[in-house]
Sequence to fold (196 residues):
Amino acid sequence: MFDNYDEISMSRTELLEKIQTQVKPSRFKHMLGVEKMATELAERYMGNIYSASLAGLLHDYAKEASTKEFLRLIDKYQLDPDLKKWGNAVWHGKVGFLKVKEDLGLDNEEILHAIEVHTVGAKEMSLLDKIVYVADYIEEGRDFSGVDKARQLAKKSLDIAVAYETRETIIYLADHNLPIYPQTLETYNSYIGALT
Ligand code: GDP
Ligand code: FE
Ligand code: FE
Ligand code: FE
Fold:
């Protein structure tokens, strides 16, 4: 992996230490797993391996931030006030990318966008967006029914993997009587054609 991350003027060791001040060990392990899978997908699909590494490592950086912190960021950056009605599941990406920007001084829009949409996807996703979205779902530590199918599909086509993951997520949310963020539905509508 990379010894230095010039984008944030940190060595890998410094970055891993910083991440560990924010998240519990099991989540840190997941973030390393997402980095590994994201860089593998970047190799397969000719994406930027450095961006995949940084986005993978940082995608859940804000997952353990407080409600107060997310509300502060929504106000400060004048995000859509409707976001306040959601919760951590949506905030840690849709708002969390701003915490990464603030805490680490990361200014790479490509990477910040991949972090922003890693949970809910987007109507139009860049190669890096898709890589992080899919890597988060299939990294080696994940173990749920359907993960093997998702891993197979990710070898075939990134768009098919995005479609499958979004479909499964929506089925899961509906089955548990959970609200579906509109952008998740936009991702579904935009990519579901890849599955049929
Ligand atoms: P993680 O952060 O590595 O656990 O994975 P994700 O960021 O992909 O997802 C975090 C949580 O958000 C999971 O429990 C998902 O089921 C949930 N989630 C994904 N999309 C939506 C949505 O549209 N609405 C709601 N309420 N939750 C969602
Ligand atoms: Fe996440
Ligand atoms: Fe995800
Ligand atoms: Fe994650």
